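S.,

Sequence below, as promised.
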Amino acid sequence: MLKHSIFLRIYAGLVILVAVVAILAYLLVQIINYQRAQEYRESLTDGMAYIISEGIARQQNEQQKKDWISDASDLLELPIYYVQADKVDLSRAELRRIKERKAAVRYNAENMIAYIILGMKDDPNHYLYIKADKITERQMKALPIFVLDYLVYYPGQEKEYLAKIQQHFSYPVNIKNIQELPLDSEQIGRLRLDHSIILYRDNATVRGTTISIVSPMPNSPSEVLVLGPVPLFNWMPFQLAAGITLLSMFMLSLGVYGLILPMQRKIRQVNYALNRTKSGDLNMRLPVDGTDEMASLASSYNSMSDHIQRLIEAQRELMRAVSHELRTPVARIRFGMEMLAEEDDYEYRLQQVEMIDKDIEALNTLIDEIMTYAKLEQGMPSLEIEKIVLVEVLEQVATETEALKTQKDIQLLAPPVTLEVEAERRYLHRVVQNLVGNAVRYCDHKVLISGGINEQGMAYVCVEDDGPGIPEQDRERVFEAFARLDDSRTRASGGYGLGLSIVSRIAYWFGGKIEVDQSPNLGGARFMMVWPAKRFSKARKKAAAEKEKTTDSLT
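The prediction came back faster than expected:
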């Protein structure tokens, strides 16, 4: 049966869907991070590409340029090649970056080597080609030297020219007072010795860990050049994680909708068929496709429709039969009565009386059979027993009653909020509602509602009023349908109708009982329903059913 379960197919589909979405999300993260990493590498080299390009442009001739490049290679401990532009095959994106005086970076993930291509300011025929297989602390400390070499041509205007070239850097480049930085004595001592230092900072923000390179300024012992803070590459920033999560949820939602759509379509068919049935059309039938739960529901609906049609047809047949059977004995009785009126023979009159008596007995038998049939068709209600906080039901009815503005004093003697009983909420609410409604109708001023569990472990609800009460000889009759009591209570209000009879039946279905006596506190009537506080066992349900059959047979 499991392999035919629509829910098992949905669950399996969800597992597969989650796996597929997870794989797609992983691949998407990898693709996005590849592009982000490339942009990160390029952003780190753009500023230095501009500074190096400016430094080479200041050289007077080609030999001086080559010497400057050689010194830069030794300083960075990286091979730097001065190559002709036509020997380097660049893509459109790389050409555009070089024209914008930025760096083109090619990264080989297998060898973990970056190839950096820099353009010349006044020499479009040559490129700088740098091979960076590793980035060490020595190389990072060498970067401020290129910036200082650029600023040496602008004595006294260092800060102004740093502000001009800031647009080429993706991280801050500033000249600060050494006292503004959170440095210890050892770091300050190294700066005094003209050594650059690297600062690592862990931030509790989305920037994460950052690096700053601090280098002393020539001829200014109180000022330093600060490159950074430069954030380290974050493989899973908040924005990316949030975007991938939202996209994954959207894809999962679409997948779940696709999985549930067939079942939704079948449920819509069932709902349409039920509406047709409600309108009186019993000829609607559902297609039975497959062997899953929806197919079983369609089959059950078809069987139910067939059964209802059979019942209706049987009812029609019964009505026709009853009509026929009633007419026959009634006609014979009428004929017998006419014969009695016209016949003087005593023996013949006795014979007609005997025939009339048989017809009356036949009528009684027919009525008994009809009543038995109706009871068998009615059956017992299906109760959905659950644990209920009793005070919630009592408070609900009290609130609903006060909302009617009956001008009566409704008081609630509330049980503990932790007290739970087992019953069907809808029927229990109906019981309290009917009892309170009757109490409000017949009380003078005050109604008291209470509930709980008695000493025998039975749950109870109690409603009292300060009205005239019910005479003891009539207390059993008030639970009969359409009962009318010949007293002031009945004359004032029209008497009890079906409300208390419904309460009586619900109490019976709950396995309990309903009683009425005189209220010891208010003096009027006190209605109290008791029932088992624990869940009904199958044996108890069976016993209740047998008890009902026995009671019906006696009545």
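Residues 386-554 form a domain with the Heat Shock Protein 90 fold (CATH 3.30.565.10).

Coffee later?
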